[in-house]
Amino acid sequence: MKITPEQVDYVAVLGRLHLTQEEKAKYLSQLDDILKYMDTLAEVDTENVPPMASPVELFNPLRDDVVKPSLPIEAALSNAPSIEGTSFKVPKIID
Amino acid sequence: MEYEAVIGLEIHAQLLTDSKAFCSCSTRFGAQPNMNTCPICQGMPGTLPVFNRKALEFTIKMALACNCRINEFSRFARKNYYYPDLPKNYQISQYELPISEHGWVMVETESGQRKIGITRIHMEEDAGKLVHDEFKPVSYVDLNRTGVPLIEIVSEPDMRSPEEAASYLKTLHSVLVYLRICDGNMEEGSFRCDANVSLRPVGTTALGTKTELKNMNSFRNVQRGLQYEIERHTDVLRDGGRIVQETRLFDPVTGSTVSMRSKEQAHDYRYFPDPDLLPLHVPEEWVDQIRQTLPELPAEKKERFISEFGIPSYDAGVLTASRELAEYFEEVVKSFNNPKSVSNWIMTEFMRALKADEKSFSQIFVKPSQLASLLQMIEEGKISGKIAKTVFDDMWATGEDPAKIVQEKGLMQVSDTSELENIILQILKDNPNEVSKYLSGKTQVMGFFVGQAMKASKGKANPGMLNKLLAEQLSKLSQG
């Protein structure tokens, strides 16, 4: 086992996830399994192989700098649990 | 122990594109909150970003202007963090393989020019804006700015004083504005700067523990913030203390910095390549094409102004600080070939008026050819320099030709000998006390006579002739 229970807790905090003890145990072994794939990959000899920017040989399609209509304001705000004027309203966050 | 400061700056510049980086919403500043949003910049599931070609072009322009190497292949990365101004919970940025790296700019410092290294210039998207309610425990989120293209310009830790940092910042600011890729407005946040500062004993090379400074929204505040932080580090180190690596906010009211204690865990952004965006390919031919479109940059322009127009380095620096001002100067010189006199006028009257009105160049009434005619009239002795200032004020307000203003207001300089003589004789007659003072050897009353004559002519007397004629009349009296 490579992943520690502390690492699972840390990742959960970063992802804002509240995990039960059972879930923690489950994810611990799942994360471990994923890392095992990496171990397998690490066995490949990559000496003299340039790093790959992407697995597909396609490059970014670009668009012209043209403004198109945005969402109507009612639609833009329609999913918000709370609004004030045309702003989304959230609990106060001061860093 | 003597310490030296080591300063590096991170600049964020909003690019002047019409639409956002990854969607087609408008980037216009000042719209009602959330009017310029769509499913992409709101971070709705299932949407896909498509990158703006102009944003890429602008980034390449800046990279070329800063002597950077353009990477043929670059890619976007996700920077992950949770904050209400970031609806996707990640910012599209660049980490490995940025658009450009390894550049430099020359910066004017007290001890001459210094080369400041640029680590990288990369592209990223801006976050939204939060307004905190003063009384209630709520914040208001406006996503209009979310997704507006930014470039981040990261310098090497090459600066050694707050003055050098400010000079570097001004240099990059003027390059961005010259390239017309950023409006450079620091108050509205289209040009922002964070600073990293650390101290080390003079003569050593290892870097000390740094602090990061934020919230300095003017050149002066960058200097003040750094000055304060350097003094704070010095005090801590001299007392045998340790600097804690942290982010601190500059408070412009007190001129000090305060720790931004975050309840959150230490930042762990977990950058990884954005799977929604394919790598960027920038072929060399495209870079060459963009290189052809680069305008003359401020430093080159300054050198050319010194050599071509023979004006002092100081003048050239002031005139080339803004591209519009420099172009205006050149236009005036085309019609009135006395660069030093043009430069004097632009640096005084013209810039005073420009500052007072807070006008932009597109709003100025006075055409370069009109300013040239005004200077021509001074040179030909048609109006005095003093009268010219009032004529200029009229031109500034109305856009009228100087010749017309001079004629309509009867401001033509009096160079008519007999008219001036009449004025002088009258003044000598009206002021017998001063005349006898003069004759008794108190020649400083000459200034009094000149002043009176000027007043009597309503400022229109040709000063050279006035002085000459006055001297003649007074010497007649002394001999008489």
Describe it:
The complex is a heterodimer of chains A (95) and B (480). Chain A is mainly alpha-helical. Chain A has a domain at 5-42: Histone, subunit A (Orthogonal Bundle), CATH 1.10.20. Chain A has helices spanning 5-14, 21-42, 73-77, and strands at 62-63, 83-84, 87-91. In chain A, strands 2-3 form a two-stranded antiparallel sheet. Chain B has 480 residues and is an alpha+beta fold. Chain B has three domains: 3-288, no CATH class; 296-408, no CATH class; 418-479, Orthogonal Bundle (Arc Repressor Mutant, subunit A). Chain B has helices at 53-65, 162-178, 219-238, 284-292, 298-309, 313-320, 323-335, 339-357, 368-379, 385-398, 402-408, 417-430, 432-439, 446-456, 463-479, and strands spanning 3-14, 51-52, 69-70, 73-74, 77-80, 90-93, 100-109, 112-125, 129-132, 138-142, 149-155, 191-201, 211-214, 247-251, 256-259, 272-273, 280-281. Chain B has a nine-stranded mixed sheet. A three-stranded antiparallel sheet of chain B has the order 6-5-16, with no helix packed on it. Chain B is elongated. The mean pLDDT of chain B is 89. The A-B interface holds A 10, 13-14, 16, 53-54, 56, 58-68, 70-71, 73, 76-77, 84-95 and B 17-19, 24-26, 32-39, 42, 50-56, 73-75, 80, 82-84, 97, 130-133, 136-143, 260, 262, 265, 268, 270, 273, 277-281.
Q: How many distinct helices of chain A?
A: 3
The tally of structural domains of chain B comes to 3
Provide the helix percentage of chain B. 40-55%
The main β sheet of chain B shows up as:
9 strands, mixed
CATH architecture of the domain at 5-42 in chain A: Orthogonal Bundle
What percentage of amino acids of chain A are in beta strands?
A: 5-15%
How many beta-strand elements of chain A? 3
What does the main sheet of chain A amount to?
Answer: 2 strands, antiparallel
List keywords for this structure.
heterodimer; A: 95 residues; mainly alpha; Histone, subunit A; two-stranded antiparallel sheet; 3 helices; 39% helix; flat; B: 480 residues; alpha+beta; Arc Repressor Mutant, subunit A; 3 domains; nine-stranded mixed beta sheet; three-stranded antiparallel beta sheet; 15 helices; 17 strands; 20% strand
